[in-house]
Design a protein that fits this description.
alpha+beta; Immunoglobulin-like; 3 domains; 4-stranded mixed β-sheet; 5 helices
Length: 279
């Protein structure tokens, strides 16, 4: 029983000493904050001094220190200057996404129309906005100057890059008619050369003057010449159709409201092209 009472006594004493130590630490912190704040106020570091005066003006500090700090805090609030940044771009658009820096320290990440506390003295201001060059100004801030308007102009954000339009691809019908044109000209070359060669050969035969040569051979030479003429016609028509379809599609791309429909009908010994346009 005696040992239990002794242990409880030691515990209570330890708790009391801990409370006293924490109280002493709090008092020391309050006094130190008050001293630091006065030193900062004397060197015109009003923003830092205000934070320290807020600490030593708390209820946890001794009454004397608390009252002094509250009075000094009121004095600092009277002396603390402030600015109101009014930002626009070169197009006259009002901006809010502007970061305000003073002597390398960020004071505001964006503008909200509220006054920004600043220490008195000469400071290097930097105003930043994404996508445009920053603006730097060296400005004298006077003690006690409240809500000083600070209009600034930043460069306008450049327009986004517009990707180039995709290259124009001719419609498939262009290649179809182009292939027909190549085939027609190839047929014209082949049948024309062969028909001319056969006709020249027949003209050298003894039967040529009397026109008594083999009728089948003569008819074959004529068919080759006719095939050459038909192939040339198909080639020219197909080339014209390919060019027409190509340039019509270019016109349709330039003027989407214009519709063109081309129909080409090839018949033995004849060809017909019809065009229908809608506006």
């Amino acid at each position: 029983m005696h040992r239990t009472v002794v242990a409880i006594g030691f515990a209570i004493a330890w708790l009391l000493s801990s409370v006293v130590a924490r109280a002493d630490d709090a008092v020391v912190a309050c006094v130190q904050a008050a001293e630091d704040a006065q030193s900062q106020r004397s060197s015109h570091q009003l923003r830092a001094a205000r934070l320290k005066f807020l600490l030593c003006a708390q209820e946890s500090c001794p009454l004397v220190v608390r009252n002094d700090c509250a009075g000094w805090l009121a004095d600092v609030d009277k002396l603390m200057p402030s600015i109101v940044v009014q930002a626009r771009d070169t197009k006259g658009v009002e901006l809010t996404d502007v970061r305000v820096m003073v002597d390398g320290e960020v004071l505001a990440d964006r503008l909200d129309g509220l006054a920004i506390p600043v220490d008195p003295g000469v400071h290097l201001f930097q105003f930043e906005r994404a996508g445009v060059p920053p603006l730097q100004q060296q400005i004298l801030i006077r003690e006690g100057e409240k809500g000083r308007a600070m209009p600034i102009t930043l460069a306008a954000t450049p327009p986004p890059d517009v990707p180039p339009p995709p290259p124009h691809r001719p419609p498939p019908l262009t290649y179809v008619f182009g292939g027909l044109a190549v085939g027609g000209f190839a047929g014209f070359t082949y049948f024309g050369l062969k028909g001319k060669a056969d006709a020249d050969e027949i003209s050298t035969l003894p039967c040529a003057p009397t026109k008594t040569c083999d009728p089948g051979r003569v008819a074959n030479a004529r068919r080759e010449v006719n095939a050459a003429d038909i192939s040339l016609g198909v080639g020219l028509l197909s080339l014209g159709a390919a060019a027409y379809v190509f340039f019509s599609d270019r016109a349709r791309v330039a003027q989407p409201t214009t519709g063109l429909q081309t129909t080409i009908l090839l018949l033995p010994g004849a060809a017909r092209v019809s065009v229908r346009a809608s506006f």
